[in-house]
Write a sequence for this structure.
C-alpha cells in the first residue's frame, strides 16, 4: 500500500432518509434517475473510474442501504472512508439541521486520524423543486460549511443531473489528498480480502 | 401509535447466527425486521474500545483486572514504554489530559501517588490505555476462522466477503515442558526442526499426509473410527509430545475430557479441517478479522440483509412480545410490529411469551494488554497450552493480536486466553496468565501489562430444534469455542425451517440492479 498504489477510494454518503443519497449515486454512476421513491433496497456500493490530476482512481461509493433510517449503521460502515458526503434536502429544514449530528456521528465512528482536516463535502439536493418550497437558503448552508472548517458546498439536483458531476469530482479530488496522507502510516502488510468476484480487489491491490 | 408494520420474520439480537440468518432470509425474498436492544451489532461478539472493555469486564460477576510490570534488569535494558515513562509529574499531566483515566488509575493502581518506578510506570500505562481508548477494538469473545471452513466458504459464495478484511495468524505455538515451540505447518518445518529424530519425523509426515486426505484413506483408520482418537494417535508411533501437538494445537481439542473421548473419526475430521486450511491465504490456517472477527462478521451479514431490504433498528426496547393467531406481535417505543416468525438470541429468551428450554455454561477467559509481545513474536499468532500435570487440568488457547488488526494502538499487544472447558477454573486461567508472562519475561527484559480475568455465559437451546412453539425460535450465543463455524449450520437449520425448499445463500448473489 505504498507509493500511491492504492487507487481505490471509499466514499460514504450520509444524511436523513429520503434526501436523495441513492439517487445522487445513481445519477453520478449510471446517469439514471427514478422518480419513484422507495426506501433504499438493493443498493450496496457503486464504483466509478475517474481521472484526477492524471491519475486513474476507482471511487467506491457506499450507500447506507436504509440502515440510517433508525440510526442503525454499524461502525464497520464508516471504517476506512476517504471522504464523507453529507446530503440534505434544501426543501426540508430538518434534514439540514441533522447534518450536525451526521457529521458528529461520522467523526465518532470513523475515528479518522486527523478529524480537523477530514474531507467532507456538503450537498444540498433537490434544487429542481420550485423555489417557494425551499426551506434552507444557500447562504445559511454555506455559513454552516464555513463554520465547520470550510467544507466544500454543492447544490444539486439528482433528478436533473445538475452539479452532480462537480460534487463527486470534488469528493474524488479531496479523498485522494486524504488518502495520500494516510498511506504514510501503514507499516503492516495488506489485509486479506475474501471475495468470489475479484473485480474490486484487483484494482485495490494487484496493479503493479 | 402508527399502524403495525408486518414482516415475514422478526429477529431480536444481532449475534452471528441471527445475522447470517437475517441475510439468508432477505436474500430469499423474505421481509425481515432485525432488532437489537443494544446500540451496536454483535451481541457478545462486539468489539469494544478500551474503557468500554474494562467496564464490561468489571461488570461481570467475580471478574478481576490487575496491572503489573517487570523491572528492567539494568539501566541499559530500559526500553521506552509508549506513554508510560516519566515521573509523577508526567502522570499528573496525563491524568489532567484524560479525566476518565484518573478513575481507572485509582481503581487499578490505588489512589496514592505511586512511589516506586514500577508502580508509576503501571499507573502511566493504565492512563495511556484510557487516553487512547478509541484506538482499541477489544473482544470479550475473540475467535478465529478456518481459511477453508464454513464461514469463509459462505463469505465467498454469498459475496459478503468484500465487506471485510482479514489477517492471517502467522505463527502457531505449543507449550511443552514450559517452553514455547512452533507447531510445524508443513513438510519443511517438520524436517528443519532439530528436536525430533528422523524416524519420528517420518511417522509424523505419514500421519499428517493421511489425515489431510483422511476420507480417501479410510482403510488406515476405519476400524478405529469410533474408538478414542488419543489411542489411535498412540498407535501411529507418535511420541506423547507429537500426539499432544496434534490433539491440542492441530485438532484444537483443549478440553481434557474431550481429548480422552473424542473418536478417531471426529479427531481426524478436526485435524483435516486445520490441515486443509493451510496454504489458502498463507502458510498458516487461521484468519482473524480486522477490528474484531465476530463483530465485523455480524455487521457484514447485517449490511447484506439491509441491501436486500431488511429493516434495522438498534437500541430497540420491546415492551411486550405476544404470540397471536396473526403472528408474533412486538410492541415498543410507540411502534407495533407483527411477524409470522420470531427468532431471538438466547440472551433475549426471557422476553418470550413461551416457555424456553436452554442450557447455560460459563467459561473463564482472560485478556492481556501489554507493551510487549507475549508469544515470542511480534506477529499475529496463536498458542495452544495443553493440560499440564499438577497445574491446569484443561488446555487453553491464546491469540495474540496487535495494531496489525487494529485491535490496539501501535506498540501494544493483546493476548486473549480461551478455555473450551466449563471445568476450567478462574485459577486455571490465572495460572495460564502466569505461564504466559513467564514466556514473555524470557524474551523481554522489561514490560508492563494489564490482565483481565472474567467469565462469559454461553447459552443455547436444549435441543437442536430451536423452535419453542410454531412461530418462535431461540438461537445460541457463541459456543465458547475458539472458532465460530457452528453458527453457519445453526443459521441454515433455522432458515430451512422458516423457508422450506429455498436456497440458503444461492451462489453468486448479485444485488438487484436498480431499474
Amino acid at each position: 500500500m505504498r507509493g500511491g498504489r492504492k487507487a481505490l477510494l471509499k466514499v460514504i454518503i450520509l444524511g436523513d432518509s429520503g434526501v436523495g443519497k441513492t439517487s445522487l449515486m445513481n445519477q453520478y454512476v449510471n446517469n439514471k434517475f427514478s422518480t419513484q421513491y422507495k426506501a433504499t433496497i438493493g443498493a450496496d456500493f457503486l464504483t466509478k473510474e475517474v481521472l484526477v490530476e492524471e491519475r486513474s482512481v476507482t471511487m467506491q461509493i457506499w450507500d447506507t442501504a436504509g440502515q440510517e433510517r433508525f440510526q442503525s449503521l454499524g461502525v464497520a460502515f464508516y471504517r476506512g472512508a476517504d471522504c464523507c458526503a453529507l446530503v440534505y434536502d434544501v426543501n426540508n429544514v430538518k434534514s439540514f439541521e441533522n447534518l450536525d449530528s451526521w457529521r458528529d456521528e461520522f467523526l465518532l465512528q470513523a475515528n479518522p486520524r486527523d478529524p480537523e482536516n477530514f474531507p467532507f463535502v456538503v450537498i444540498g439536493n433537490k434544487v429542481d423543486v420550485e423555489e417557494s418550497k425551499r426551506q434552507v437558503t444557500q447562504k445559511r448552508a454555506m455559513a454552516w460549511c464555513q463554520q465547520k472548517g470550510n467544507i466544500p458546498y454543492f447544490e444539486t439536483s439528482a433528478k436533473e443531473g445538475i452539479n452532480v458531476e462537480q460534487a463527486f469530482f470534488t469528493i474524488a479530488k479531496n479523498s485522494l489528498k486524504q488518502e495520500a496522507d494516510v498511506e504514510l502510516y501503514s507499516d503492516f502488510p495488506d489485509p486479506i480480502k475474501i471475495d468470489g468476484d475479484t473485480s474490486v480487489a484487483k484494482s485495490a491491490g494487484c496493479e503493479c | 401509535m402508527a399502524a403495525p408494520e408486518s414482516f415475514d420474520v422478526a429477529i431480536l439480537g444481532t449475534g452471528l447466527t441471527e445475522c447470517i440468518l437475517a441475510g439468508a432470509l432477505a436474500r430469499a425474498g423474505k421481509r425481515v425486521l432485525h432488532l437489537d436492544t443494544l446500540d451496536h451489532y454483535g451481541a457478545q461478539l462486539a468489539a469494544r474500545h478500551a474503557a468500554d472493555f474494562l467496564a464490561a469486564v468489571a461488570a461481570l460477576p467475580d471478574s478481576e483486572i490487575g496491572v503489573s510490570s517487570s523491572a528492567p534488569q539494568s539501566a541499559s535494558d530500559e526500553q521506552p514504554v509508549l506513554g508510560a515513562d516519566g515521573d509523577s509529574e508526567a502522570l499528573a499531566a496525563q491524568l489532567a489530559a484524560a479525566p476518565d483515566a484518573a478513575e481507572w488509575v485509582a481503581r487499578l493502581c490505588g489512589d496514592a501517588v505511586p512511589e516506586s518506578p514500577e508502580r508509576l510506570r503501571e499507573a502511566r500505562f493504565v492512563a495511556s490505555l484510557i487516553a487512547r481508548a478509541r484506538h482499541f477494538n477489544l473482544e470479550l469473545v475473540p475467535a478465529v476462522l478456518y481459511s477453508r471452513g464454513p464461514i469463509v466458504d459462505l463469505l465467498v459464495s454469498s459475496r459478503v466477503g468484500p465487506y471485510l478484511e482479514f489477517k492471517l495468524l502467522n505463527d502457531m505455538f505449543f507449550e511443552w515442558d514450559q517452553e514455547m515451540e512452533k507447531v510445524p505447518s508443513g513438510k519443511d518445518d517438520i524436517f528443519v526442526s532439530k528436536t525430533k529424530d528422523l524416524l519420528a519425523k517420518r511417522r509424523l509426515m505419514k500421519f499428517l499426509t493421511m489425515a489431510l486426505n483422511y476420507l480417501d484413506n479410510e482403510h488406515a483408520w476405519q476400524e478405529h473410527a469410533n474408538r478414542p482418537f488419543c489411542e489411535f494417535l498412540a498407535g501411529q508411533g507418535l511420541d506423547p509430545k507429537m500426539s499432544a501437538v496434534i490433539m491440542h494445537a492441530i485438532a484444537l481439542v483443549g478440553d481434557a475430557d474431550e481429548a480422552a473421548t473424542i473418536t478417531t473419526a471426529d479427531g481426524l475430521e478436526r485435524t483435516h479441517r486445520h490441515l486443509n486450511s493451510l496454504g489458502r491465504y498463507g502458510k498458516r490456517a487461521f484468519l482473524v478479522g480486522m477490528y474484531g472477527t465476530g463483530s465485523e462478521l455480524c455487521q457484514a451479514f447485517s449490511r447484506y440483509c439491509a441491501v436486500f431490504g431488511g429493516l434495522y433498528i438498534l437500541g430497540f426496547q420491546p415492551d411486550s412480545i405476544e404470540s397471536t393467531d396473526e403472528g408474533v406481535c412486538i410492541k415498543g417505543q410507540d411502534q407495533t410490529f407483527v411477524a409470522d416468525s420470531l427468532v431471538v438470541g438466547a440472551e433475549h429468551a426471557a422476553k418470550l411469551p413461551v416457555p424456553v428450554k436452554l442450557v447455560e455454561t460459563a467459561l473463564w477467559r482472560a485478556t492481556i494488554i501489554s507493551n510487549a509481545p507475549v508469544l515470542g513474536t511480534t506477529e499475529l499468532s496463536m498458542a495452544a497450552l495443553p493440560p499440564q500435570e499438577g497445574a491446569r487440568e484443561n488446555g487453553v488457547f491464546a491469540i495474540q493480536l496487535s495494531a496489525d488488526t487494529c485491535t490496539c494502538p501501535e506498540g501494544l499487544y493483546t493476548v486473549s486466553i480461551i478455555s473450551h472447558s466449563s471445568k476450567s477454573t478462574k485459577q486455571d486461567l490465572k495460572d495460564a496468565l502466569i505461564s504466559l508472562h513467564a514466556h514473555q519475561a524470557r524474551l523481554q527484559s522489561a514490560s508492563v501489562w494489564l490482565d483481565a480475568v472474567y467469565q462469559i455465559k454461553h447459552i443455547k437451546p436444549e435441543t437442536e430444534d430451536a423452535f419453542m412453539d410454531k412461530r418462535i425460535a431461540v438461537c445460541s450465543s457463541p459456543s465458547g469455542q475458539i472458532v465460530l463455524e457452528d453458527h453457519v449450520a445453526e443459521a441454515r437449520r433455522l432458515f430451512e425451517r422458516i423457508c422450506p425448499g429455498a436456497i440458503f445463500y444461492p451462489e453468486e448473489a448479485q444485488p438487484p440492479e436498480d431499474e
